[in-house]
Amino acid sequence: MRPSVVIACFLGLAGSTNAAIHGRYVVKRGVLELRAEGYDFVIAGGGTAGLTVADRLSEAFPKKNVLVVEFGDIEYAPGVFDPPKTSMSDTSGMSSRWTLNSLPSPELNNSTAFVIVGKAVGGSSATNGMFFDRGSRHDYDAWDKLQEGGYGDERWDWDSIYPYFKKSVTFTPPPTAVAKEFNYTWDTTVFGNTTPIYASLPPFQWGDHYLARKSWVEMGIYNRKECAGGDKEGLCWIPISEHPVTARRSHAGIGHYAAVAATRPNYHLLVKHQVTRVLYRGANPKSGPPLLEIKPVNDDQSSSRFNVTAKAEVILSAGAFGTPSILQRSGIGPWAFLQRANIPLVLDLPGVGSNFQDHSGQRVEWNYTVPPNFTPMPSDMLNATYAAEAAIAFNQTPAQGPYTLAMSNSAIWVPLPNMTISYTILLDQIRSMLNTTIGLKDPKAAAHYHLPTDTDATQISGFRSQLSTIHNLLANPHAPSLESAFTTGTSVASVLLHPLSRGTVRLNLTDPLQPPILDYRSASNPIDIALHLIHLRYLRRMVQTTTLHDDLHAVETLPGLALHSDAELIGFIRNVTTQSYMHPCCTAAMLPRVEGGVVATDLRVHGVAGLRVVDASVFPILPSAHLSATVYAVAEKAADIIIRQWSEKYKAASSD
């Protein structure tokens, strides 16, 4: 199906409560529309991962039936900056999403994290900033290293996941004139170009976009041709997740549903329904596959709940917040918490809802004492004539102008050893934390590692492994520790890529069906403050470069010239840190069970039958990337694992 037709189909579905594409399938909206005999595979969550897996399974097993249950509805998702917006800070008109606030973080002066999560078909791929980068090879090698001692034969190092990065996206190079105008570089060999999830480099940049890039090169940062091939330290051009012709957002709801479901009568999507829990017969987690208990979103009557049978398995793809919530409501999680919640215990799995991580950071800002005259600039959008012309350009074929540009597609990734010669002091602090002998069952152990007070001994063991792994990443001169992105204006972000602080996601005991309680515990581990300080000092250097300071008379305004000492800058960090760059993960981590893990390397939940998790919650640690591309790759690899395992079972069953 052509991309323009796919987008038109998705728009048609968004405008109807019971619409069909080509008359071949109908979006399901109630229990009576479902197969009475159940489904082979039932997927909780119609987001980035869930729809990818559903697409692959329904294609591989045309005689098997796949059901996806999604809390939200089908909606057209505009890009971050599409007409009629005239400001990139305008977040109106985007598809449905959860807007959540965390508990206060004491180490950051009791500030709270604000995080947005997708609540529509397509999930967060339908709401995010469209920045479509991959992590460093060292991130995924670290994932694989953390699996030692667990069970499962699947590998998660760079060489094992790289083919799925290639498989998961179709990249289109920009036209020659555009590439020459902006000095774009890329390497088509790192993309597979076989999937209706699109990425491209936009045909537009604001007039001052080159300033940060020029400053960073002046600071000695390597200008890398391509950063999607595993080697990421340096200055990178990053594709954005939009179609190269229409410049409309490309997301899982389009690419892995609307583009394929018309020819898949075995692929069903139930919208506006919430998965409440998984049920095991006799509460025996070995009796799988489980049933999935479901309710209409706007009906909280217990009589409205119904069960769907999964003949093969249930796959949880509800994200870093939704997946641990479903597991906890199902009686799978930390027994002490489940006891407080009055939820009957099915399986004590302490890692469920633990190991919570997100990227965080601050900003460096400056002013020009002699304002330069760049054009075009975002302020031009306030001119009605310019804005109207921009809208016309966006609707051309191919699309042109400022509306083709998302939040950013240019950034640096810098390893810790490249920022300061004193990085070894910080590494010594991590080693000291590791080498102090504290018994895993000693109640002082959690406090020593700055973990939540209810941390289980297995989780402490797992955190020690993570601590050692992150130590090695920070010591690696090719593994990024800092990210900073730029598109326009007079500020850049300083983003901590590998935090040591760990938070929790727990059910809301007042109403377990509402979004969970998020405890970020940002900067609870003092190493994170030390890393923020190094990153901030490094990034301030760009304001002193010839490009900004000498040529354009830039003057730093944040943190500000008055702040010099470590104490002053740490105070600044505690006051202004953004606790979430919308990259929550790791709450059902792929780790050995003896180290607090929730899923094995084949993503099956430890200790239960017929239940798997495929979404960002399975990440053991954050990658040095925005999460969308990695979630797609994990889902592609997961689908391959599931297809391979069930193909063998179906083949064996047919030969009996």
UniProtKB/TrEMBL annotation:
Its cofactor is FAD. It comes from the Eukaryota. Substrate binds at residue 581. The keyword Flavoprotein applies. One of its GO terms (biological process) is secondary metabolite biosynthetic process. Keywords: FAD, Flavoprotein, Signal. Residues 1-19 form the signal peptide. Pfam families: GMC_oxred_C (PF05199), GMC_oxred_N (PF00732). Belongs to the GMC oxidoreductase family. PROSITE patterns: GMC_OXRED_2. InterPro entries: FAD/NAD-bd_sf, GMC_OxRdtase, GMC_OxRdtase_N, GMC_OxRtase_C. The keyword Flavoprotein applies. Residues 319-333 form the Glucose-methanol-choline oxidoreductase N-terminal domain. FAD binds at residue 275. The active site is at residues 583, 626. This is Glucose-methanol-choline oxidoreductase N-terminal domain-containing protein. GO terms for molecular function: flavin adenine dinucleotide binding; oxidoreductase activity, acting on CH-OH group of donors.
